[in-house]
Structures are given as structure tokens and as C-alpha cells.
Amino acid sequence: MYELFVLGELMSNDWHGYRLQEKLKHAAGPYRQISSGTIFPLLTRLERDQYIEIQGKELIGKRVRKVYRITETGRKHFYTLMKKPLKFNMDTDLVFMFKMAYSHFVNKEFQLACLEQYLEYLQNQLEYLRNETNIIEQKPITTMPKAQQNQLLKIFDHRIQLTLTGIEWVTSEIEQVSQLHSIN
């Protein structure tokens, strides 16, 4: 997942590792810890696999930083990652966000495929949340205190509302991308 981010960032600009780490921290959000122990081994592996190369070095303060650029092999690998179907797991939202950030590098067909996969993910999540809500509502009062049941129902309702908003947004994006597709 972070591999997609690094290659996506290097598609437009050459960056040093510390700057990539900072950009990834901002992209991943405030609750994901992106340490040097995450980014620098990844950069080493990407360089070993010849997806990136050192373009030069930059002196920042008293530190010399390696500046990376993407190779042609790295560009091909980036497109392969972009075209891979979304996996439905704990990282689906973040991978989708990365793919949307770099969607201008792929054609409309793959943009639509990603949006439709994410829509499927959200619809599955909605179905799960509604099923769980029904189960909680049907539990006899003896198996769960009423206060706990009410609180769980509020939590599930919150998640349902977030998911419905996501579905609405993705559906709108699919329409917009489809219209662009038919124009081009």
C-alpha cells in the first residue's frame, strides 16, 4: 500500500526520503504512525527492485539526503499496482484514497473499475452493518442490557450514515467519470 504511495509521488516529482515520509504522514492521516522504520526499508527495497533510483543528493541543514526518482520499470510497476483490484480489508479505504489521488495517471476505464470496486466494498459494509443492527435489535433483553443495546445501535447507526454518505459520493464520482469517458 505504501509502495503505491511512494511510486505515485515519484511519478510527478523527485523527492528525498524524509520528504516522502512527511507527505505519507499527511496522506495517511493523524492516527497512522509512519516512521523512518517504515519508509526507508521500503525505499531500499524499491531501489533494489529497480523501481526507483537515486537521482542525486540534497543538503538540507547539516544532513545530506538522497533524492529518488522513479525508473521506467517503476512506472510500469506503478501502473500494475493502480490496476490491481481493491482487496477488502482494514486498509481498503486508504488504498482507495491513494488510487484516487493518482487516478489521473490511468485511463477512465481503470478509474471506473476502482470506483465500482470501492462501491461494492461500501455496499458490503452497509449490508453487514444493517444485518448486525437487526441482530442487536432482536436480542432478548436478558442477553444484553437495554442501555448497552441502545448504545450499540447508535454506534451502528453512525457507521451506517457514514457508509451511506460514502456510497452517495462514489456513485456521484462514477457518474462524473462516466460522462467524461463518453465525451473523450
Automatic annotation (TrEMBL):
<dbReference type="InterPro" id="IPR005149">
    <property type="entry name" value="Tscrpt_reg_PadR_N"/>
</dbReference>
<dbReference type="InterPro" id="IPR036388">
    <property type="entry name" value="WH-like_DNA-bd_sf"/>
</dbReference>
<dbReference type="Pfam" id="PF03551">
    <property type="entry name" value="PadR"/>
</dbReference>
<dbReference type="InterPro" id="IPR052509">
    <property type="entry name" value="Metal_resp_DNA-bind_regulator"/>
</dbReference>
<keyword id="KW-0175">Coiled coil</keyword>
<keyword id="KW-0238">DNA-binding</keyword>
<feature type="coiled-coil region">
    <location>
        <begin position="112"/>
        <end position="139"/>
    </location>
</feature>
<dbReference type="InterPro" id="IPR036390">
    <property type="entry name" value="WH_DNA-bd_sf"/>
</dbReference>
<feature type="domain" description="Transcription regulator PadR N-terminal">
    <location>
        <begin position="6"/>
        <end position="78"/>
    </location>
</feature>
<protein>
    <submittedName>
        <fullName>DNA-binding transcriptional regulator, PadR family</fullName>
    </submittedName>
</protein>
<dbReference type="GO" id="GO:0003677">
    <property type="term" value="F:DNA binding"/>
</dbReference>
